[in-house]
Amino acid sequence: FSLREVLDAFRRCVTEQREVLLEPYLSGWRGLIRFLQSLGTVFSFISKDAVAKVTLLETHRQRHNFKSLQSMVEQELAAGQAALRARPDSGCRTVLRLHRALRWLQLFLEGLRSGDPRTSVLCTDAYNASLAAHHPWVIRKAATLAFCALPSREAFLEIMNVGTAEEAVAVLGEAIPYIRDVYGITQELFESHKLLDLP
Fold first, then answer.
1. Is residue 199 part of a domain?
2. Domain named Glycolipid transfer protein: which ranges (predicted)?
């Protein structure tokens, strides 16, 4: 895992026209998955799901030659809302699942950057503010228990693979605004097309 690679991917994601390019978006996600996997089994329930979603979205991107998130949404909506809602493997539904997980990661990384040493609290708070609402009670309970086994903040900053803890905090400071920007654009796009509640 390299935080700089994730930073670079999300930096390349957004065009001047505020479109989200799918190739760097997926590249950023592959980096975030490596981060989750480096933390061991604690995050396996999220990382396995993310791997499946990224693979599915990559297949959609290649098959339909989608360049941006906006072009994918436009093309999938052309068949109508009902048709889109009937497809459990649609690109829109897949992005929505990744979008929710990106919010959790963004909030967690912001917490790590803030300096609070209680990683289990940071992770639980981020989870409760993002993914928890979309998971059944059993998953929520298992996740909250798993977060209790998280390594220390120092261990997380070391996993970032960018040098000292101070350097890791500095790179997080660079990366988070790009992740937040991609999240914000996606949120607005899905909200404007009433896609935030896709089944």
1. no
2. 21-161
